[in-house]
Structure formats: C-alpha cells, structure tokens
Design a protein that fits this description.
heterodimer; A: about 260 residues; alpha/beta; six-stranded mixed beta sheet; 10 helices; about 45% helix; about 15% strand; B: about 260 residues; 9 helices; 10 strands
C-alpha cells in the first residue's frame, strides 16, 4: 500500500502537518520531503491558512534522513554519493520555504528529533517539546556536519560555545536541557503536548498575521543586518503594518479595553 | 530646551535621564520623545558627561508609546514609520554610538519601545518587581526601537520569535536568567545599586569603555579576522592614553587608579 508520508488537516485557520512514517520514527525519505514542500506551498497560497502546526505520528518526531532502504542515500552504491544534489533539490528548499512562509509555524516535538530531524524542528518559529523528546545532532557519528540549517540555527539559538560542542560531540539533549539553553521555547508534559501546541497555533491563527510575517522577516534579517539597517527595516515594516486593518483594530481594542478581533489583513 | 516630560541632571561626570510622567507609567508621547531626543543630543555633546543613568519616575520604567497621546495621528493614512525616522531611531542610534556607558535602572514595567530603551543600554539592572513586554504584536505591529535586532542577539532565535509573536510579560528574574539584562536586585536597592555602578563607570577609563562599546557593536557584523584587526587598532590607540599609563602604574604600586577619561 502506498504510504502518505505527511498527513494534513485544516481547522480553525491552522494547517496541521503530521509526519507519518511512524514505523521509521518518521525518518525523511524523498517522498516525505516532497510532500512537505507541497504542503508548505499550499500554506503559503491559501489565505484560509494563518498558522501551521508541525508534529510527528507515533513515538518519534523525526529520526533524520532514512539511511536504510527507500531512503535518501544509497549506501550500497559503488560510487561515493553526491549528498549535495538532493539537498539542493528538495531538502534546502523545504527549510527555505519554512522560514519564508509569511505565517507562523509551531513545532510540536513529540519524540526524538535526530540529525536532520532536529534541525527540521529548529526551523519552526516556536518549538514546544514533550518532556520525553530529545534533540540529537547525530551527524558527526556518520562523519557529516549538521545540515538543514543546523550550523546556522545552533549558534543563533544557543551561542557559539554550545553550538560547537553539540555539533562536534553529537551530544543528545533532553527537552528540558534544550529549553534551558534557549534552543526551544518550552517543554510540556507528554500528555499535554498536542493540546498546548494546538491552543498556541489556534491563538496565532486568530492573531495579526501580517505582524507575525513581519516579525519572522525582521528577525531573519537581523542576523546579518547592522543595527543601523535594522532600524530602517523596522521603520519600513512598521509603516506598512500601521496601515493594516489589524493594527487599527488592535489600537482601538486596546483603548476600549476589549479583546481585539484580528482578521489577518 | 526646558523639559516637562523628563528630567536631566548632571553631577560628577554622571548624567541621569529620568522619564517623568509617572501617572502614565512614563508612556512616550510625541512631546516626551522630542525631549528624550534632545536630552541624548545634549549628553552626546557634553564632554564632562562620562556615563549615563536612565530610569523612570514612579512605579513604571516606560510603558511604550502613548496610545492615548492627543498628538498621535490615528487617521487611516497615519504613518507609523515617520515617528521612528524622526525621533525613536535617532535616539536608539545615539544611545549605541555615544562613547559613554549607559546604565538602565529598570524600576518597573518596560513595555514596547520602553523595553527597547532598556535593551539599547549597555548595562541594564532591574528591580525584582519590574517586567518586560514586547507588546507590539498585540496591536498588529512588530517590535521596534531596535528590538528585532536586540532580541535574537540577547536571547537567541527561539525566544526572540516567541517573545515578539506571543507578547508574554517576562519577570525581571526570568529576563536575567535568559541574559536579556545584566542583573536583578531588590526593589529597595535598585537606585542605590544602579547609581553606584553608573558613578563607578563615570570615574572609570572612559576611552576604554567607549572602545569596548564600539568593539561589541562591530563584532556583530565582523568575521573573527576583522575583529582581531579592530582589537589591534583599538588597543594600539588605548595604549597611548593617560588612563592606560595610570592604570599600569597603579597596578604595580598596588593602589587604586585615578582615571581621568583621557
């Protein structure tokens, strides 16, 4: 039977994407990444989608590239593989699409996030993890370097010292350790994860979408901007946001001391 | 300029800038930001000022932009970029570029651009009861006053995104734990601790403090090779200062140094 590597469901403005290869701890094969890319294009184009929730089915979030049969690498081939080709074709476009999506992405990390699976998780805007989840930069164990943005995300999340150690030692972190070093936003109890993550994603889906899009873009740009250029960027974004219906509603609601009703426009 | 929304006091090389609209938790009106900008220009131009203390009167530090300000344009074509260009961004640029250390004594809530003022300071100390809030997304805006730049550098990408998008109110102790600010002290001790620190900096080796500030600013855009060259250049220059000579002599004689900022 043909498997559906990514399940998608749309409700209350939230597109929930569930990695669905539980027998392989949702390890990434080409079909899974291609399905993710289609789902992200849909999330971008469909105005009814105002937030994305990403999680895994079963006991793992994503065990990284599927190194066994049907995976991304043919280890038995005689010629050394070109790992870069597939990254160029589908993996890196997925990470780029996640960061460029003008809508917030919540990660609900339900179990192990290893190798590329860890960095797939860290590409989300706000990461919640179950207490039993783990984050594992396993690459060095097979003589590779962190990919899917790992060498960029790590120093930007936890600082240089921890980034180097995590990448070189391949240390596996508990969700609590990851929270304490700022790698993820919050740890929640295993049984509460999906409820909390869904509540958060729904709240974002009912929020000022254009403001979230501007925040994503500004924080990405901040990584390479001087403060001087960033102040100009904030001015330009604030000028655009100030003219939106949601900003007018936000100020009116604040002054009337009532909850704001945002429409994403 | 005479001030009605703030106070600016100078003594012994220390300038103290106090936001002073306590009944509004020092929310920033157009009138207040014009005064704040003028005060920073004064501080920048005054060679006798060697350190700055920034704080708020009453129980708040700064509640952010004053949304009830009668001077605020609330029309459909209001330009929220104009006030940033004219007032807020020049203030943040001056705070980061003046060759003098800035201590923020965060005495209460620091919200919106008020939080940006605290983060733009070199050393922020908060009272235990103070709190920090990136309120912007609550009214459909994005953090400004440099906060989209300060936040990821201070607390990393995840916390920056969550603080900006979810707009949670963060207690002072949490802010310290995350590295958002330098220290937290008991409410009753805040002004004494911050003033002592600012006075110490005002009596310190001003050129060294200025170069530290500039080097840290530039580190964010430099690669390590460029930064090593910059350290060499600054060190060469500082090695020729009077304060360096005094510092070395005092160290060898095991006596406290008397720095002049030269």
């Amino acid at each position: 039977m043909e498997e559906t590597p990514v399940l998608s469901a749309l409700a209350d403005g939230v597109l929930t994407l569930t990695l669905n290869r539980p027998q392989r701890l949702n390890a990434m094969n080409n079909a899974l990444i291609e399905a993710m890319n289609r789902a992200l294009a849909r999330a971008r184009d469909d105005a009814a989608i105002r937030a994305v929730l990403l999680t895994g089915s079963g006991r793992g979030f994503c065990a990284g590239a599927d190194l066994a049969g049907g995976g991304t690498v043919d280890a038995a081939a005689a010629e050394p593989p070109d790992l870069g080709a597939n990254m160029d074709r589908i993996f890196n476009p997925m990470i780029r699409a996640m960061r460029a999506l003008p809508k917030p992405i919540v990660g609900a990390i339900n179990g192990v996030a290893a190798g590329g699976g860890a960095n797939f998780a860290l590409a989300c805007d706000i990461v919640l993890a179950a207490r039993s989840a783990r984050f594992d930069q396993a690459f060095v164990r097979i003589s590779l370097l962190p990919d899917l943005g790992g060498t960029w995300f790590l120093p930007h999340l936890v600082g240089d010292a921890r980034a180097r150690a995590l990448a070189m030692l391949g240390t596996s972190l508990t969700a609590e350790q990851a929270e304490r070093m700022g790698m993820i936003w919050q740890v929640v109890e295993d049984t509460a994860l999906m409820d909390e993550a869904t509540t958060l994603a729904r709240r974002l889906a009912a929020g000022p979408t254009l403001s979230y899009a501007a925040i994503k873009q500004a924080i990405d740009a901040a990584a390479t901007n001087s403060l001087d250029r960033q102040l100009d960027l904030e001015r330009d974004s604030q000028r655009l946001l100030g003219k939106t219906a949601d900003s007018r509603e936000g100020v009116a609601a604040f002054r009337a001391k009532r909850p704001a009703q945002f429409t994403g426009r | 300029m005479t001030y009605s929304q703030i106070t600016l006091a100078k003594a012994d090389g220390l300038a103290t800038l106090t936001l002073s609209q306590p009944e509004k938790l020092n929310a920033v009106s157009r009138k207040m930001i014009a005064e704040i900008k003028s005060a920073w220009e004064d501080i920048a131009a005054d060679g006798a000022v060697r350190a700055v203390l920034l704080t708020g009167a009453g129980r708040g530090f700064c509640a952010g932009a004053d949304l009830a300000d009668p001077d605020r344009d609330t029309g459909p074509n209001a330009d929220s970029g104009a006030a940033l260009d004219k007032f807020f961004n020049p203030v943040i640029r001056t705070m980061r570029s003046i060759p003098k250390p800035i201590v923020a004594a965060v005495n209460g809530v620091a919200a919106g651009v008020g939080m940006s003022f605290a983060l733009a300071s070199d050393i922020a100390i908060a009272a235990k009861s103070a709190s920090f809030l990136q309120a912007f997304a609550r009214i459909g805006l994005l953090p400004d006053g440099g906060s989209t730049w300060f936040l990821p550098r201070l607390v990393g990408e995840q916390r920056a995104r969550a603080l900006a998008m979810l707009a949670p109110q963060i207690k002072a102790e949490q802010a310290k734990e995350w590295g958002l600010i330098w220290d937290v002290v008991e409410d009753a001790d805040l002004m004494k601790t911050a003033t002592d620190l600012a006075r110490r900096l005002a009596g310190g080796p001003t050129l060294s403090l200025a170069r530290i500030k500039e080097a840290m600013n530039r580190a964010h855009g430099n690669d390590l090779g460029q930064q090593l060259d910059l350290e060499r250049d600054f060190q060469r220059e500082l090695g020729r200062s009077e304060d360096f000579k005094e510092g070395v002599q005092a160290f060898l004689a095991k006596r406290p140094a008397t720095f002049k900022g030269k």
